[in-house]
Design a protein that fits this description.
There is one protein chain. With 175 residues, this protein is an alpha/beta fold. It contains 6 helices and 7 strands, in the order αβαβαβαβββαβα. The protein has a single domain, classed as SPOUT methyltransferase, trefoil knot domain (Alpha/beta knot, 3-Layer(aba) Sandwich), CATH 3.40.1280.10. It has a 7-stranded parallel sheet with strand order 3-2-1-6-4-7-5, with helices on both faces. Helix 2 runs parallel beside helix 3 and helix 2 runs parallel beside helix 6. The longest helix is centred in the last third of the chain and has 16 residues. 34% of the residues are buried.
C-alpha cells in the first residue's frame, strides 16, 4: 500500500468549496474557550462540507494565528457567524427551520447511534464549553440532546473530538 501524494487527493479550491452543496448542518460553539479547539472544529466542518459554524460568547473568531494553526485555512472556506449570546443563535436557527440538538449528557438524551434524521430537514448541533458543557438555558431551548455512549472511567471527550464523532455520524445519516 502506498500513501497518496497531495496532488492525488483531488482537493477542491476555495471557490469550488463555496459553491459546493453543503451538509444541512450548523455547528454551534457555546463558549468554547480553546482557540485550538475552535480551529479543529473549522477543519472538521470543512472536511464534511458543513453549512456553517456559529461562534458564540467567548468562542474565538477568525482571524487569529492560533486558530489558523489548527484550522489550516478552513476558517476561509467554512461560513461562520458570531453571536454574543448562544440563546440568540438558537432562536435564529429555530426561525430558519433547523432542528437543534445539544450534545450533552442529560436526562432523556438520545444515544448517538439511535438518532434518526429526516434528510429533508436541517439540523444544528450545539457543542459546549470544555468544562461546563452546554449551558442549561441552551439545553432547555434545544429540541433534544444527543449523547455519545462512553464506557471508560472518564465520561467526557475533548470538544473537538466530540464534534468530529457527531459530525461523522450525522454525515453518514444525511448524505
Amino acid at each position: 500500500m502506498r500513501k497518496l501524494k497531495v496532488s492525488e487527493l483531488n482537493r477542491i479550491s476555495v471557490e469550488e468549496f463555496k459553491e459546493a452543496k453543503k451538509l444541512p448542518l450548523v455547528v454551534v460553539l457555546d463558549n468554547v474557550r480553546s482557540v485550538y479547539n475552535v480551529g479543529s472544529v473549522f477543519r472538521t466542518c470543512d472536511a464534511f462540507r458543513v453549512e456553517s459554524i456559529y461562534l458564540c460568547g467567548i468562542s474565538a473568531q477568525p482571524p487569529q494565528i492560533e486558530l489558523h494553526k489548527t484550522a489550516l485555512g478552513a476558517e476561509f472556506t467554512v461560513d461562520w457567524h458570531y453571536f454574543k449570546d448562544t440563546r440568540d443563535a438558537i432562536k435564529s436557527l429555530h426561525e430558519q427551520g433547523f432542528i437543534v440538538y445539544s450534545i450533552e449528557q442529560a436526562e432523556g438524551s438520545t444515544m448517538l447511534q439511535d438518532v434518526q434524521l429526516d434528510k429533508s430537514k436541517k439540523y444544528a448541533i450545539v457543542m459546549g464549553h470544555e468544562v461546563k458543557g452546554v449551558q442549561q438555558e441552551v439545553v432547555d431551548m434545544s429540541d433534544n440532546c444527543i449523547e455519545i455512549p462512553q464506557y471508560g472511567t472518564k465520561h467526557s471527550l475533548n470538544v473537538s473530538v466530540t464534534t468530529g464523532i457527531v459530525i461523522w455520524d450525522l454525515f453518514k445519516k444525511l448524505r
